[in-house]
From TrEMBL:
<dbReference type="GO" id="GO:0022904">
    <property type="term" value="P:respiratory electron transport chain"/>
</dbReference>
<keyword id="KW-0574">Periplasm</keyword>
<keyword id="KW-0677">Repeat</keyword>
<keyword id="KW-0813">Transport</keyword>
<dbReference type="GO" id="GO:0015942">
    <property type="term" value="P:formate metabolic process"/>
</dbReference>
<dbReference type="GO" id="GO:0046872">
    <property type="term" value="F:metal ion binding"/>
</dbReference>
<keyword id="KW-0560">Oxidoreductase</keyword>
<keyword id="KW-0500">Molybdenum</keyword>
<keyword id="KW-0732">Signal</keyword>
<comment type="similarity">
    <text>In the C-terminal section; belongs to the prokaryotic molybdopterin-containing oxidoreductase family.</text>
</comment>
<dbReference type="GO" id="GO:0008863">
    <property type="term" value="F:formate dehydrogenase (NAD+) activity"/>
</dbReference>
<protein>
    <recommendedName>
        <fullName>nitrate reductase (cytochrome)</fullName>
        <ecNumber>1.9.6.1</ecNumber>
    </recommendedName>
</protein>
<dbReference type="GO" id="GO:0043546">
    <property type="term" value="F:molybdopterin cofactor binding"/>
</dbReference>
<feature type="domain" description="4Fe-4S Mo/W bis-MGD-type">
    <location>
        <begin position="6"/>
        <end position="63"/>
    </location>
</feature>
<dbReference type="GO" id="GO:0042128">
    <property type="term" value="P:nitrate assimilation"/>
</dbReference>
<keyword id="KW-0479">Metal-binding</keyword>
<dbReference type="GO" id="GO:0051539">
    <property type="term" value="F:4 iron, 4 sulfur cluster binding"/>
</dbReference>
Amino acid sequence: APRVHLKQVDSVCPYCGVGCALTYNVDEEANRIVYVDGRDGEANHERLCVKGRYGYDYAMHPQRLQKPLIRVRYPKGSLSDASPNAQEARGGRRKGHLVRYEDVLPAFREASWDEALDLVATRLREARDTHGPAAMAGFGSAKCSIEEAYVFQKLVRAVFGTNNVDHCTRLCHASSVAALLETIGSGAVTNTFAGIAEADVALLAGTNTTANHPVASSFFKQAAARGTKLIVVDPRRPDVAQYAWRYARIRNGTDVAFYNGLLHVLLAEGLYRADYVENHTTGFEALKETVARYSPEVASEICGVAPDLIREIARAYGSARAAITFWGMGISQHTHGTDNARCLISLCLVTGNVGRPGTGLHPLRGQNNVQGASDAGLIPMMYPDYQRVADPAIRAKFESAWGVPLDPKPGLTVTEITTAALEDKLKALYCMGENPFLSDPNVNKVKKALAKLDFLVVQDIFLTETAEFADVILPATSYLEKLGTYTNTDRRVQIGRPALKPPGDARLDWQIVCEISNRMGYPMPYTKASDIFDEFTSLTDAYQNLDYDILGKAGRLWPAPDRAAKDGVQILFDDGFPTPDGRGKLVPCEYTPARETPDAEYPFVLNTGRLLEHWHTGTMTRRSYALDAIAPEAFVEVHPEDLARLGVRPGERVRVTSRRGSIELVARSSTKVGVGSVFIAFHFREAAANVLTIDAIDPFGKIPEFKFCAVRLSRP
Ligand code: SF4
């Protein structure tokens, strides 16, 4: 066969927050990616995991949306709903592991872009003018670029007139960011993950890095091989624990007790930096008073870790020359997630482990652009760069830049938006790239709530579980078809470049947002993505000096005070913090149990999370041939002793039931989970873990408790 010439396109992996640099090898004639190479990026040094290597063919999947779709009850040529009952026609029968388009499509008709956009703009304007801006909301997405996030939040704020805009950071690190902003004045990481190379101790708290940040975990393993002591703390033993110097299996949800136990030992044995505490922190006495109550014996009673192991870990951390701390969703996704993060920050601050090589605080970001989307203002209480909407001077700055008055009230978060819809306070929602019908806790409640909306518009690349319930579906471009910037977990801003042509009539997300804005009477006359990026950076401090030219091939860390330097600043806060007094704040926390604890009726603790091969609600990875083949089905991990007690053999199907719903899936025997605890990944629509999860939220970060609810197991 003749050799096909392949074009090389340098880009960034669309999945996790590691942000691996890669090259797509593209058969342009066939509009097809043939294979992927890892590039020598700062984050990956040519490495890729299975998702980056094989998870690209979703973009070429036959189910890609190619035309705007309008629910059939909207007669052609009319801008209003023919049915008086907006709920009746919503939804479709769903079976199998992908949405069955043949079941759902009869509820929709194809439309031209003009008709769809006119309908969307008219209905959104009507909802705003009839019910007021507070009845409007937008869900953006960390799967989108900084430019898309920026125009989306601008549309919601400047055109809808509300701050009701949020995205999946609410389900991810909202509690970590709340704690970081409160204590050290910045929500970003203080050191890159490669900084572990200079650490002699690394604490990995509630993070399953080999599955969720696989290439970052290769840095961790290398560091362990060179002598860094890895301390792994997690109720479900992650694979990286094989490389650990010590692994502590805490009981689910007892993080505060465990870390207070460590703090107790550090302070009782003088293993803290008194000079650093004196010069750079506040709140030490209150912290000391609280942790004095958490002796290793007391902490052990709660968290289940032996007192001697608590002492051993504290002594290693406290006597380290340089200790670095990483954490993940095991810390953040709790009703006490902000407290968990506060404890980790206190550990770091009392030992002076910040601002030096080999030290730092690093909440590992989940999605490839969750940092960038948050930086771009896709959060309800802050404009771009975490500038607070409630601050009159800041608001005046954005009113001047955008030329309209802005709402002074912080908006609703993801879970609060759902509740507002349920209470009939929210009437219209624009959802760009999110899939709350699978990703949000207690999805039966989410469905009930969002089915009550007067108008739901979904912009996506597939007919997702959420799109099934939409009034209008707008076909967008995939990551592989567009130019944009993405900020990884390290604060590295990189350019993603188009490798494929979009299918059919699919359009760029930012162009769709601008078209809707134009039609609603607020012109957004951008002609290219870099125009949007330049407007965004002009309103921030963090992104000063960054533009498409300088981001070039390798990207750059923010902040980048020196354009001529090779890179931005790797290690932050070597001399104080961006807080009002320049000091880090020590916030004492008391242990509180999870909102719903096991009982006789629901005796197991359910912990949810992700698998290496899949990504969030599976819209992309379950349409990637290799990934779906490697991990084709949902399962529940159960400890062998529990399986034996239930009389269930590994591989048999079981029913898992919580107070909110029930799913059926295969049982797998695993000692990763402790006795009395089970684990289910949330990617699988046919056995959706979030049917079971509880929608209780952390009072500060407003993050749901995905890591803890009570369930029972039974034969189907
Ligand atoms: Fe992509 Fe993350 Fe895997 Fe890198 S580690 S290839 S960014 S999924």
